[in-house]
Amino acid sequence: MATADTSPPTPLTVLVDDLRGFKDERPALVACSSRKAIELLEGLGDRRVDHLWLDHDLGGEDTIQPVIDLLVRLARTGSPLDVGLVHIHTANVGAGHWMRLELAAAGYAVVRSYSLGMWTIDA
Asked: What angle, rounded to 10 degrees, do the helices at 65-76 and 93-105 form?
């Protein structure tokens, strides 16, 4: 009997967003809340995340703040998450600016993504 492959895809893409999905259906590990995102990232251990996509507003009062705090704390203790590139794709302009500044200051490679056509919306 064949067993399902539960290993993360290679290259590894992680998407943290409560509504969006990739229109091109690229393989990704997805977390819809800050709590789930932290669990997912911590569960990867030392595995490299090639592309980390971050939204700011995650439904209700939940935001990406705890995830940013984790990433910055890890960098400040000398053990940053192994991330190739952080993509900030939030529609919240002020929060996106803050996210980019925090992560870049912590040493992460960060870009803002404004490509609206790449998403499906699961409202």
From this structure: 10
Q: How far is CA 50 from CA 74, 91, 93, 95, in A?
A: 17, 23, 24, 23
Tokens for 54? 């971050």
What per-residue confidence (pLDDT) applies to 102? Answer: 97
CA 105 to chain centre: 17
Model pTM?
0.88
Alpha-carbon distance of 69 to 105, in angstroms, equals 12
Q: What angle do CA 49, 90, 22 make, to 5 degrees?
A: 60
Provide, rounded to the nearest whole percent, the portion of the chain with pLDDT above 90. 73
The 10 Å Cβ neighbour count of residue 9 is 12
